[in-house]
């Protein structure tokens, strides 16, 4: 079993001619990109590789050092909880009713996000204006 990453190893990772990965545990890795005109010092990016519905997926978790090693691990655990709440791809294929559950969970999540955004937009529209004509002074 490979050793998990340390913060010192992340700091010491220098860009090379080609991109390379430093792997941690639970599908977390640090992608070290080479120097380029856009990134003169190279780039270090957190990646989370997982499988969902029988397909390999890759999720970007942020840039090192903006996202530390411990924060990246916490984000991976949070994503794993979300994936665990959804049905496992083998279970979903073997039982048709679990596909319906997965679909309804997706619809609920989408409607929840829409409701939150609508509430935020509504609160922005209801803020009082700060124009001079509407301001009254009392003496």
Count of β-strands: 4
**What is the arithmetic mean of pLDDT?**
77
**CATH homologous superfamily designation of the domain at 11-101:** Integrase, DNA-binding domain
Low-confidence stretches: none
Beta-strand percentage range: 15-25%
Structural class: alpha+beta
Give me the number of helical elements: 4
Strand order of the largest sheet: 1-2-3-4
Instruction: Provide the succession of SSEs.
Output: HEEEEHHH
CATH architecture of the domain at 11-101: 2-Layer Sandwich
Give a verbal description of the structure.
It is a single chain. The protein has 139 residues and is α+β, with helices and mostly antiparallel strands. It has a domain at 11-101: 2-Layer Sandwich (Double Stranded RNA Binding Domain). It contains four helices and four strands. It has a four-stranded antiparallel sheet, with helices on one face. A hairpin with a 2-residue loop joins strand 3 and strand 4. The longest helix is centred in the last third of the chain and has 30 residues, at 96-125. The radius of gyration is 23 Å and the shape is extended.
Which labels suit this protein?
139 residues; alpha+beta; Double Stranded RNA Binding Domain; four-stranded antiparallel beta sheet; 4 strands; 42% helix
In short:
With 139 residues, the protein is α+β, with helices and mostly antiparallel strands.
């Amino acid at each position: 079993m490979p050793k998990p990453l340390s913060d010192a190893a992340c700091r010491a990772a220098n860009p090379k001619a080609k991109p390379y990965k430093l792997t941690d545990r639970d599908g977390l890795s640090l992608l070290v990109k080479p120097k380029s005109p856009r990134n003169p010092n190279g780039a270090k990016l957190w990646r989370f590789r997982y499988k969902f519905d029988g397909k390999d997926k890759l999720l970007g978790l942020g840039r090192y050092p903006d996202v530390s090693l411990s924060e990246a691990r916490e984000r991976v655990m949070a994503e794993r909880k979300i994936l665990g709440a959804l049905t496992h791809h083998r279970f979903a294929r073997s039982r048709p009713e679990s596909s319906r559950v997965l679909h309804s969970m997706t619809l609920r999540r989408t409607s929840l996000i829409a409701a939150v955004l609508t509430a935020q937009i509504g609160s922005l529209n209801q803020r009082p204006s700060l124009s001079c004509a509407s301001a009254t002074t009392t003496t």
